[in-house]
Write a structure and sequence with these properties.
Blueprint: H1 4-11, E1 15-18, H2 20-27, H3 34-45, E2 50-54, H4 55-68, H5 71-81, E3 87-90, H6 94-107, H7 111-122, E4 127-130, E5 142-145, H8 146-149
Parallel strand pairs: 1-2, 1-4, 2-3, 4-5
Length: 156
């Protein structure tokens, strides 16, 4: 289990894809993962790491605020993703969907996980940061789990 500083040093100058659960932990200030997700967000904001995510992530994050009718939160989340020079939001084109289908067939992933993985690959990312055990490292992409680094970054 490495520290967040070691992880950020290792990712310095690289491109990473953020899965929805990483961003949800940050936006919801999840007590178990907020410090870690905030450090990753800060590294992206500072330009130390190039951050990517996909349209599907944005949609996943908007489900709960829409469900609860919290339109103010919907607006805040949309504004968060529109911050300039922050995250690159990748669109899911036909080739990405085709790669997702291939990955789902090969690795038996849930389709949404395969779509995130495919989007990360097609965006040229070196790693995907997630807290989803269904997404695993392969020859194509390193998968970094929040839970692996959580113990050293818990909030007091």
């Amino acid at each position: 289990m490495g520290s967040i500083a070691e992880l950020l040093d290792r990712l310095h100058g690289r491109s990473v894809y953020l899965d929805s659960n990483v961003l949800i932990c940050f936006l919801d200030r999840n007590p178990d993962y907020f410090a870690l997700s905030a450090a990753i967000i800060e590294a992206i904001e500072s330009g130390s790491i190039a951050g990517y995510t996909g349209d599907a992530v944005v949609a996943e994050i908007l489900v709960k605020p829409y469900r609860t009718g919290n339109i103010e939160l919907v607006s805040g989340i949309k504004a968060f993703f529109q911050t300039e020079q922050f995250l690159t939001i990748c669109h899911h084109d036909a080739d990405t969907f085709d790669l997702a289908a291939q990955l789902r067939a090969k690795y038996n992933q849930k389709f949404i996980d395969a779509l995130h993985y495919a989007t990360a690959i097609r965006s040229g990312c070196h790693a995907i940061i997630t807290n989803d055990n269904g997404i695993r490292t392969s020859d194509h992409l390193e998968v970094i789990s929040l839970s692996t680094h959580r113990a050293k970054t818990r909030l007091p």
